[in-house]
């Protein structure tokens, strides 16, 4: 699942609620039983994802004896092609019941991943199959994320969105801390294919959890033209670029995420190569700071309550950009390890606050009938920009050296706060609900 998700148990009530009406959920901090099922489904699939972290490259290297170029293609080409495949799915999903789409995307990922252990058992596993599965999973991930955002906005009242997003963020960081060590043990005992099975099963359990949430979801009203036209594929980007507050945030997140991720392979080369750190030290430097994301997500709501959404969004968005440049000064000893750990702790703590606030802000600024297309376009752009910048920084690392390229990424990140929204914007008025056709 790699995305976010939710529910409140009241059978017979439509998911698309009249404006101002709650879905009959209990008062207090509880968000309802249906949200609980959705949250549990997210946590299950997120844990499966992190259990299988790095399994595809390991299978390519250990089982298929693939070279560096093929291993790199699994992440870069797979993600890029998957993003392209997901482009037409956004407009299609917009006019479908989101809960049905979520279950279907979990089913697609379950089936696709299961082909790997099946082919391995038959001695028929190939690199092409690994690549095709990575494309299918990437496209399903993007579609799931977009549908889950629309589902969440329809499920909960606006004042509960930040609480829900903070819970998903804390769950994401918790699984990040727990998953890779457990996955490493499983790979050591059973091999990387076993963790792919665990990942596949997590999607099946997620689908069952979403289905168990129950409730009736209203079918979104379709346009008069039912066929998707070529121009419809760009609707998500049109909505984003036409909004004066979403537009800068869109460019900020795409550039920030791309530059941070582009520097990661170079940092691995630097730490495990010239600086001589052991693999366990490298893993520790990135695993331990994940606790900052968990703490940051818990602080998001109190900070917004005290300082306001816009100030927290801009403040933490700017603070997170200050840390990565410090990675260019890493040394070969314990001090270098502490430097990386400290930088990552600061970066992840800021992201832990920023991410749920930004996710809530984006949902509030997007009309209900445009959420899926907007989130799909956002995710496609983020994946594509990350793949592109990773490739560019790979070339820069070869030409300038890893340390210089890491420093260059850090310097460019210092400029990303200029793309944050300058002023707070009022939430968009919600249109009156249309009669259900479902």
The CATH level-2 architecture of the largest domain is identified as Up-down Bundle
Can you write the helix and strand succession as a string? HHHHHHHHHHHHHHHH
Low-confidence stretches are 1-29, 431-438
| Inertia-based shape | globular
* Content-based structural category: mainly alpha
CATH class of the largest domain: Mainly Alpha
Q: Could you tell me how far the N terminus lies from the C terminus, measured between alpha carbons in angstroms?
A: 26 Å
Region (Disordered): 1-27
GO cellular component, one term: plasma membrane
Transmembrane segments: 35-59, 71-89, 249-273, 279-300, 312-330, 336-354, 375-396
Protein name: MFS transporter
Concise summary:
The chain is mostly helical and 438 residues long.
Helix-strand layout with pairing:
Layout: H1 33-51, H2 55-63, H3 68-86, H4 89-94, H5 98-121, H6 127-155, H7 161-190, H8 192-212, H9 235-242, H10 246-272, H11 279-287, H12 290-307, H13 309-319, H14 334-364, H15 371-400, H16 402-413
Membrane topology: Multi-pass membrane protein
Pfam families: MFS_1
Biased composition (Basic residues): 1-10
Task: Explain this structure.
The chain is an all-alpha fold. It has two domains: 1-219, MFS general substrate transporter like domains (Growth Hormone, Chain: A); 234-428, Growth Hormone, Chain: A, CATH 1.20.1250. It has helices at 33-51, 55-63, 68-86, 89-94, 98-121, 127-155, 161-190, 192-212, 235-242, 246-272, 279-287, 290-307, 309-319, 334-364, 371-400, 402-413. Helix 3 (68-86) packs parallel to helix 6, helix 5 (98-121) packs antiparallel against helix 8 (192-212) and helix 15 (371-400) packs antiparallel against helix 16 (402-413). The chain starts with 32 loop residues before the first helix and ends in a 25-residue tail after the last helix. Keywords: Cell membrane, Membrane, Transmembrane, Transmembrane helix.
